[in-house]
Amino acid sequence: MVAERSYSALAKTVRAALEKVEASAGVAKPDPILIADGVRRHFGGIIAVDVKHIEIQRGSITALIGPNGAGKTTLFNLLSGFDNPDVGEWRFDGHNMSRVASHKTASMGMVRTFQLTKSLTKMSVIENMKLGAMHQVGEKWWNGLLPFLWRSQETKIEERADILLTRFKMDHMRNEYAGTLSGGQRKLLEMARALMTDPRLVMLDEPMAGVNPALKQSLNEHIRGLRDDGMTVLFVEHDMDMVNDVADWVIVMAEGSIIAEGTPSQISANEKVVEAYLGRHQGTSLLDEVER
Predict the structure, then answer these.
(1) Sign of the C-alpha dihedral, residues 154, 159, 160, 161?
(2) Which pLDDT band holds residue 260 (cuts at 50, 70, 90)?
(3) CB burial string 18-41: b at 16+ within 10 A, e below
(4) Could you write out the DSSP letters of every residue in 101-158?
(5) Of 275, 278, 249, 174, whose CA–CA distance to 21 is shortest?
């Protein structure tokens, strides 16, 4: 018999609020931290993203799922400033983020990781961590010539990095080259480094891709820990076991559009979504299939 999962007070509050939300595409949330309207991106004649409206509940773990080519990563790139839309706008915590550069989104509390990790393999784990800190005085070359201007901040940054490495159980690897880490360890490093910015929204692009099964449960626990610390998590994932395990809310994309939303149990029971996700629509449009 599987023991019922226990939730933190924050998680219980979020889940209770979302249980009252109608399970439909583009539905309004009680307290959204991110709202996007009319976001559209095409490449040549292909419409990669056509999202009319989407809201992400503050403090939740929201999964973004869909078949390959649904537009999930493209939407991530748009929202995080790594690409520009043809039209559309979005607001994060009340701030208009449309066409804001990626490095500025991070400084405003919205940070992301990538499906293919971006660690610098020739640098140590602790050096990779320190690169994630924002507003470093020593970044300006003339300040770099004057150690008394940045040495105190450098010490505090390293202390913060060590705390996070301990949290992610990577403190014993602090001086190892990042290139020696396994795929799962690099995912942990990237997640830990993202927290160096003290984000309010963490966006994870396929956090389980290439991860050894032995590390998957550890990653799940760390993702739940982000929510329990008051952060909002939005992640793209194909591993439905992981989605059902950690997500409070699920958003389904197909052919660039949002076709359904709901709790994991509601999405799992939605026959049309399952058909779309598994590709059993027999040549018809996924959008038409869901709307029937």
Answers:
(1) positive
(2) very high
(3) beebebebbbebeebbbbbbebbb
(4) -HHHHHHTTEEE--SS----TTSBHHHHHHHT-SS-GGGSHHHHT-HHHHHHHHHHHH
(5) 249
The whole model's pTM is what? 0.85
Q: Using one digit for the tens of pLDDT, what is the confidence trace for 199-212?
A: 999 999 988 887 78
192 backbone dihedrals φ, ψ, rounded to 5°: -65, -45
Can you tell me the distance from the alpha carbon of 222 to that of 149, in angstroms, rounded to the nearest whole number?
A: 35
227 neighbors 59 (Cβ within 8 angstroms): yes
Number of H helices, E strands in the chain: 12, 10
Q: Which residues lie across from 50 on neighbouring strands?
A: 40
Alpha-carbon distance 237 to 113, whole Å?
Answer: 13
Phi, psi of 277 (to 5 degrees): -65, -35
Give the up-direction half-sphere exposure of residue 264: CA atoms within 13 A in the CB hemisphere: 16
CA 203 to chain CA mean position, Å: 2
List domains and CATH numbers for the chain.
Answer: 9-93+200-279 (3.40.50.300)
**pLDDT tens profile 112-129:** 887 666 667 788 999 999
* CA–CA separation, 101 and 215 (whole Å): 33
Give CB contacts under 8 A, 24+ apart, made by 135-144.
Answer: 135/107
Indicate the residue type of 181.
Answer: L
Question: If you write DSSP's letter for every residue of 40-57 in order, what string do you get?
Answer: EEEETTEEEEEEEEEEEE
Return d(Cα 240, Cα 283) in angstroms, integer. Answer: 24
